[in-house]
């Protein structure tokens, strides 16, 4: 008990210290972010006002935002990174303008010496920071102002309906008139210019270091990785190796207590489901429906990488644009996983405490229909907003905010936040009898509840930005939600729930599990909280973000080094008693979580997490490879495993079908591996080579994205997609079988009543 108390104290200290540092970094980002200034030419003519730049950010987000290309590397991978694209186009425009001004020739016609002279002029023009803090103005030379107008005309036509950009739109999977209003397009160019200006202009007091730490790679102006990016990458790898060695040494010195002899019979066989537990069954059926919808949207979204606006010749983009299909694909991934976890919490609470609180079933039903309303409502309004070009106010409040994984409108976010708090309340009142009763497993139960409280409470970070919030701060708060949810509190909740289930089955000792769970939580959060900063290396943040993010992000890999050992132990536990066959596929899902944690989160995650690697690969398909393997492989398989565990106690055991679950399990995991390693990883490596050799603009250009190799890589997703879809079909058939058996039982029961 004394040791456990010390661990809780250390956990509190680490959380407090980590969030204090994270808050301090947020303050530094706010103070040192690229200024949003008035842009004028040397004669004082205004090109963009600060209000126009901020409105341009809203305009881009309302047109699809991070679902339509990226800014500073964050978003989707089919359209360009607009900051890199603008920077390259402006540099090329300046080359021709300076060549004509100095040599009366186009740049391509110059000799090597003339080109070198022009290149030096272009570099000086773009890297010199002309921002005046006293007047809040950025003054451009007449030549650069002309280049800005040339590039702005390109984007004005692209986001409008000019016919000359039709092919380019198709390559970008854009529909005509993404922004039908001229004022929106004009403001959009201001935002794109500002994001490019910040990527090239030297920070005040620095030479050769831009506001985005020289991201993106652009050889024309010597935008190359900073010394800090290389140094901290090396330091983080050394720290990771040392920490893994220390973890293995600790694990070897402290041999784990042997697992107890499992009971002769299933301890949960006689468990009677309470009304609120039975009410969670519909949650799991919705989970299956959301999985099917998410996979369907993923297939459509991937196909747009080849045809752009059509699906095997059918002009699908007219009713389901790429921005909508990708939004649903990414949003539903989070929603179905979260729904499975919410339902698991509501199911296990009465099962653990042995008490059904008054009105618990009513609360469970109300929460279900409220969440269903939010899912359907936010999806419908998001689709209508994009398709009908409803404008920035509609997009922010009710439609699609254009931010990856947090795209639903603000009203829906508020409702979801209330729903998550209500879920934490229901879970807490269900667990309260067990929490106040001294027992060996009380520490694990407390960890489950605290993790649930953090999952609900931290969704409040989605409410921290407004329409005119600086883009650097939007990204800061967005990653508070996405990273801390997924790689922080989701991880803790998952670990605690699995430990709790295994203790209830008599497979691990509650006393030893208590200390183990707190220790694992300390390890996860020690790296995970400040590891959030690895998403923010190049988003207009101070260089301290690179140092802190690199070191703590490396520590996130450390606990994954022992995941394989835990997965093997779970496999041995699943074979320790004949009755455990009833939970075979749920436990195998937990084992798959260990595999994908090592491969998806560990290997693929760390391959892009160091500053030097992410500098060249941010916004490329290696990120997608990591995202698919980690999000579905880890949290998706965990959600399915928890769902199967709960359904085992909710449905008649004769309605169970291990054959369907076997098909589901193997097809999903094999299909995911095929998708990642046959398509996404090769595509990511190919783009990384292009980024290193010619620049980020080139890696994201149609020449690369629609090259023979890349389009072949897209088609190589098809075998994996088919195998994965077969697994989803098995899961759907399994759910239909459960529904059919349940209806049959109800019919038989009604017949018996009538006969009597």
TrEMBL record:
Single GO BP term: aerobic respiration
Keyword match NADP: no
Domain Nitric oxide reductase subunit B cytochrome c-like: 37-217
Keywords per UniProt: Membrane, Transmembrane, Transmembrane helix
Pfam families assigned: COX1, NorB_cytochrome_c-like
TM stretches of this protein: 229-250, 283-306, 333-354, 366-386, 411-432, 444-465, 477-503, 515-538, 544-565, 585-608, 628-651, 672-693, 713-736
One function term, GO molecular function aspect: heme binding
GO cellular component terms attached to this protein's record: membrane
Signal peptide limits: none
PANTHER family noted in UniProt: CYTOCHROME B SUBUNIT OF NITRIC OXIDE REDUCTASE, CYTOCHROME C OXIDASE SUBUNIT 1
Protein name as it appears in the record: Nitric-oxide reductase large subunit
Species the sequence originates in: Pseudoduganella guangdongensis
